[in-house]
Amino acid sequence: MASTSNSNTHEQVSSSSSLNWKERILLPTLLAGVAGGGAGLVSKHQKVHGLANICGTYATNFAIVTACYCGAREFVRASRTGKPDDLLNSAIGGFGSGAILGRLQGGQLGAVRYSVMFAVVGTTVDYATIRVKPALRSYYDSLVNKKDDWLKLPEWSPIQVLDEEALAAKRAREEELYRSVHNLKKES
Fold first, then answer.
1. pLDDT-based confidence at 141, cuts 50/70/90?
2. What are the C-alpha distances in Å from 81 to residues 28, 76, 77, 110?
3. Residue 96 and residue 100: Cα distance in Å, rounded?
4. Calpha distance 78→12 (Å, rounded)
5. Which of 97, 136, 146, 185 is the most buried (most CB within 10 A)?
6. In degrees rounded to 5, what are phi and psi of residue 102?
7. Reduced to 3 states, what is the DSSP secondary structure of residue 24?
8. Between 51-80 and 27-41, two packed helices, what is the crossing angle to 10 degrees?
9. The pTM is what?
10. What percent of the chain is modeled with pLDDT above 70?
């Protein structure tokens, strides 16, 4: 009986990780790519290398770093069978991905520097995301769930949202105008 509940828990964790990988890996990678492109726009190197080239380089580098970090964090989470909001997963994943990328970039000293930097920055960003996500979710829900009030046009706007009575009155005016125009054409 205990092995059945343990396997069910393991199946739930693995199915939730396979379903939410877009939210935990792909979305941050895409957002980092956009942020990298924006950083390339304000880079001092754009005059030397060209705007498109430097924006593409920054976007690619930011996306690669974020994908490595998020992938390592999710690997640690799956290995530890932890929750997605566990900050220890972020610290270990940041340390591991920073060590690998730092070793490729700057040797042993780079591995030490990058691992500490990735662990601190990644854990800080994940902590901030955990804190900000409920506020953003409630703001989004307040915008989406107000079906009538989500977009209010000012009264002076030439675009008017009409209810059933106003639509019926408008149709009646249009039909009257149509009849009067056709009567004028017949008389001429």
1. confident
2. 22, 8, 6, 30
3. 6
4. 12
5. 97
6. -70, -35
7. helix
8. 150
9. 0.64
10. 82
